[in-house]
């Protein structure tokens, strides 16, 4: 970093342009680039943005601009009150010059002026570095505080990347909607051609309910049968979302049902429509992936997590590697489970997971629990506190206060070509607000876990076969040729 004379007189004009650029961008990760482009009044400076996670105990580098590698923050989480950047996360602005550093810099001992500025509204810390032995003047300090205030004042709706997704043009796409009627007495379904096509059956005709259920995966068929039984004899409007197999993958269908009872005859009539909503699910998955890429592309966390997952051998080692990567973000325990035979099967745990395995292993898959819902629906479930858990699952009101952990995220684990759905329960020791950057890291971890799970399960199976072979060899008597 070569020094450049500061020009404080230009600050008012540049500050006005800076505010306009920040509002236009609405992306916190672009702040260092915007600052470098909009401001020259402070001389030759570089900027770094660090995200505050886990109650302010750790900082993660999020974005930097204008800093050469030897001046950039490490990709590893930063903690320790001796560092001004960490103190800034607690609200204490810091200024310094000379050999002191706002965060560890192992590859240079050149003097520099630095400022560590809290961004309370964005749960972040802004760091400015300027080479040279001279410090900041009083006017420059005031300028830096005003800059930090402008960044912290970004609207909450635009403080995180991915917010612009909600401002995208409305999505319009064709809809496939079929109609049907169901006779609860004969258990027969009459349908139109669209309904038949959505379920992969020929033509327009009548089918027995069990024939249609046989077309669905066993767990989906059980859910649909349970829904039909619940609706039986109860007039009203109902909605059921379920998966139907397709040659190119699963399709998601939404059935909207109207059940009426004739007051004179007492005969129940059930009619409804089925709409394919696969694109909605794919759009939601694409939005999550886009959010993940936007938040993690600029940091080394994803690379470190990928390396840890790639080097893991078995399933237990895989989950331990993921837990080690997520522990600085406040994750206390991980539990990996699959849905098998209509029940939850715990595959592995890591961290302080003492209660969940005993409670969840063998639980019926149709139970109303975060992990079961994530396994069945393949959508994430977040509970920020025991009270939030009770708000979503009122039947857990007596259990929630006695649970060891205080926040949970149940995440589907995408496993290509897997026969059984998988999900991961992430537990926190304290109530946890799942901000977009936190959700993105967890979703990325679940995706990486899914990519490596099949390989690690194969390794476990190979080890089990080897151990069984060695045991059989040890138990086999050796035959010796008689001497003499």
Describe the 3D structure:
This protein has 484 residues and is an alpha+beta fold. It is built from 14 helices and 16 strands. The protein has helices at 11-25, 31-38, 84-89, 138-152, 193-198, 209-213, 218-231, 278-296, 301-311, 315-326, 356-360, 370-377, 386-392, 436-474; strands at residues 46-53, 58-65, 94-96, 112-119, 124-131, 177-183, 188-191, 206-208, 236-244, 251-261, 268-276, 331-340, 343-351, 381-383, 407-413, 422-428. The protein has a six-stranded antiparallel β-sheet, sandwiched between helices. The protein has a five-stranded antiparallel β-sheet with strand order 2-1-5-4-3. It has a five-stranded antiparallel β-sheet with strand order 13-12-16-15-14, sandwiched between helices. The chain is globular. It starts with 10 loop residues before the first helix and ends in a 10-residue tail after the last helix. 36% of the residues are buried.
Quick gist of this model?
This protein has 484 residues and is of the alpha+beta class. 35% of the residues lie in helices and 24% in strands. It is globular, with a radius of gyration of 29 Å.
């Amino acid at each position: 970093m070569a020094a450049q004379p500061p020009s404080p007189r230009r600050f008012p004009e540049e500050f006005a342009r800076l505010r306009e650029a920040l509002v236009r961008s609405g992306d916190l990760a672009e702040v260092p680039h915007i600052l470098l482009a909009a401001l020259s009044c402070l001389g030759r400076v570089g900027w770094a943005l660090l995200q505050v996670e886990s109650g302010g105990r750790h900082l993660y580098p999020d974005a930097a601009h204008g800093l050469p590698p030897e001046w950039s923050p490490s990709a590893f989480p930063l903690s320790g009150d001796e560092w001004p950047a960490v103190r800034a996360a607690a609200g204490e602005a810091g200024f310094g010059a000379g050999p002191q550093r706002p965060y560890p810099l192992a590859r240079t001992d050149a003097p520099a002026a630095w400022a560590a500025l809290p961004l309370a509204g964005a749960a972040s810390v802004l760091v400015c570095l300027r080479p040279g032995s001279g410090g900041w003047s009083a006017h420059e300090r005031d300028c830096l505080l005003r800059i930090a205030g402008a960044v912290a004042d970004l609207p909450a709706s635009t403080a995180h990347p991915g917010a612009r997704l909600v401002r995208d043009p409305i999505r319009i796409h064709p809809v496939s909607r079929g109609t049907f009627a169901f006779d609860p007495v004969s258990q027969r379904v009459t349908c139109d051609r669209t309904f038949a096509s959505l379920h992969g059956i020929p033509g327009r005709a009548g089918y027995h309910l069990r024939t249609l259920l046989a077309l669905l995966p066993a767990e989906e068929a059980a859910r649909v049968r349970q829904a039909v039984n619940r609706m039986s004899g109860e007039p009203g409007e109902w909605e059921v979302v379920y998966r139907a197999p397709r040659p190119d993958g699963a399709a998601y269908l939404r059935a909207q049902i109207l059940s009426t009872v004739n007051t004179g005859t007492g005969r129940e009539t059930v009619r409804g429509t089925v709409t394919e909503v696969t694109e909605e699910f794919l759009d939601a998955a694409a939005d999550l992936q886009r959010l993940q890429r936007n938040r993690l592309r600029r940091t080394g966390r994803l690379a470190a997590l990928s390396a840890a997952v790639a080097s893991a051998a078995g399933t237990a080692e895989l989950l331990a590697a993921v837990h080690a990567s997520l522990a600085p973000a406040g994750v206390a325990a991980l539990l990996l489970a699959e849905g098998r035979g209509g029940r939850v099967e715990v595959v592995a745990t890591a961290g302080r997971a003492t209660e969940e395995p005993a409670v969840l292993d063998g639980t019926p898959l149709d139970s109303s629990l975060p992990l079961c819902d994530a396994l069945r629906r393949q959508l994430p479930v977040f509970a920020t506190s025991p009270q939030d858990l009770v708000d979503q699952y009122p039947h857990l009101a007596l259990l929630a206060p006695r649970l060891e952990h205080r926040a949970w995220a149940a995440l589907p684990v995408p496993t290509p070509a897997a026969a059984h759905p998988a999900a991961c329960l992430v537990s926190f020791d304290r109530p946890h607000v799942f901000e977009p950057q936190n959700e993105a890291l967890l979703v990325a971890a679940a995706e990486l876990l899914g990519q490596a799970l099949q390989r690690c399960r194969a390794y476990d199976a190979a080890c089990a076969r080897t151990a069984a072979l060695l045991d059989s060899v040890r138990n086999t008597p050796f035959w010796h040729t008689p001497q003499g």
